[in-house]
Design brief:
By secondary structure, the chain is an alpha/beta fold. The chain has three domains: 9-68, Orthogonal Bundle (Arc Repressor Mutant, subunit A), CATH 1.10.10; 83-173, Response regulator (Rossmann fold, 3-Layer(aba) Sandwich); 182-310, Rossmann fold. Helices cover 37% and strands 15% of the residues. The chain contains twelve helices and twelve strands. The strands form three sheets. The chain has a seven-stranded mixed β-sheet with strand order 4-3-5-6-7-12-11, sandwiched between helices. Helix 11 (267-279) links the parallel strand 9 and strand 10. Helix 1 crosses helix 3 (44-56) and helix 4 runs parallel beside helix 12 (314-328).
């Protein structure tokens, strides 16, 4: 049975306002915060956060300081249905909660969705392989999850309607959405440093390291430098992006100067690293601290919980649904939206062995 998620006050207010807007309660402009906050019985801070959420979905538009927000007009007629193809990084991503939610939400408003006949991993993250696959896949629009820069550039260069879910999308004139992780990476790194760690390694996929580190990876390296820790290949190592390459990379790391802390991207790699450490007789967090840069449902069953970086997937799903609606109504939509992310400390981090930590 799926876990029941309790909505925050901000989400409850946003849901109420969204429903009222759909009913036509207001037109043209939304009443100001000074009027709405007492009417709804919430604080200005909560209301402003809810309004920002609706802005990120394209439901409202900000018009500048002290001016009322515009209400985006709704379509009078049903929008044409789209055939939306999802190109994922690997097959296991099909089971991710936000991928399932996205399919349901797109279907709810009349669009059809299907997975591409292969994943980017199947094509070796290779543009030529993706090009052949796209040519054989009838679709009106594409959602690319975790796409490398070259693949996202290829979609843009072919004028194919595409929305980047995560991936190296920054600076490209395409729609995109994902969590704002760099501040959370910096906080996670700082927390380890305050516990006495200096040999901290970030295990990142090749597409996140090359041709240059992404924003989150740069935040990690900059936090090391801010605390006087020299940065080098040790902290962001290269490894072949497959099972054998991953384990070979870990073996190399632990041969001479083993890290005291690992920050690991993706829950599947996190689990593999835990098994690797257990086989070597290394305890977590007594010998090695671990942080996962993604949340995973299995973490809820861990006691104490895993240290991880979490984010709410609902605004992400809603943003993509809004992009599909804009595309269906022939509106240009290349907005890139970031949603908040946070570092959640857990029982997999602790002081360096022999140190009292920070």
């Amino acid at each position: 049975m799926p876990l029941i998620r309790v909505l925050s006050a901000v989400e409850q207010v946003a849901n109420y306002l969204r429903d009222e807007l759909m009913r036509g309660q207001w037109s043209g402009h939304l009443p100001g915060v000074d009027r709405l906050a007492p009417e709804l019985g919430v604080s200005r801070k909560t209301l402003e956060a809810a309004l920002r959420l609706l802005e990120s979905e394209g439901v409202l538009m900000r018009n500048g300081p002290r001016r009322r927000r515009s209400i985006e007009p709704r379509e009078a007629q049903p929008l044409p249905a789209l055939r939306v193809a999802l190109l994922l990084s690997e097959a296991a991503d099909r089971q991710l909660d936000y991928v399932v939610d996205l399919q349901h939400e797109l279907a709810r408003i009349g669009h059809t969705t299907k997975f591409a006949p292969g994943t980017m991993k199947d094509f070796g993250m290779n543009v030529k392989g993706v090009e052949r696959m796209v040519a054989k896949t009838p679709a009106d629009a594409w959602i690319v999850a975790g796409g490398p820069r070259e693949i996202l550039q290829w979609f843009h260069g072919r004028s194919l309607p595409v929305c980047a879910l995560f991936g190296r999308r920054s600076g490209l004139p395409i729609a995109g959405v994902g969590p704002d992780k760099p501040p959370a990476y910096a906080l996670a790194t700082r927390s380890l440093i305050e516990l006495g760690h200096r040999r901290i390694v970030l295990i990142a996929r090749r597409m996140r390291r090359l041709p240059e580190p992404g924003a989150s990876e740069r935040a990690f390296l900059e936090e090391l430098a801010a605390h006087g820790i020299p940065r080098g290949p040790y902290h962001l190592p290269d490894w072949e992006d497959h099972i054998d390459g991953f384990h070979a990379g870990l073996e190399t790391l632990f041969q001479v100067t083993p890290p005291t802390a690992l920050i690991i991207q993706e829950a599947v790699l996190f689990a593999a690293a835990q098994q690797f450490l257990a086989r070597r007789g290394l305890r977590v967090p007594e010998d090695v601290s671990l942080i996962c840069t993604d949340a995973d449902p299995t973490f809820a069953w861990c006691k104490p919980t895993v240290a991880y970086i979490g984010w709410n997937s609902r605004p992400v799903v809603r943003r993509i649904v809004r992009w599909a609606a804009n595309l269906s109504s022939r509106k240009t939509d290349v907005r890139q939206v970031l949603t908040p992310a946070e570092f959640v400390p857990g029982g997999t981090i602790g002081p360096v062995a022999g140190s009292k930590g920070g």
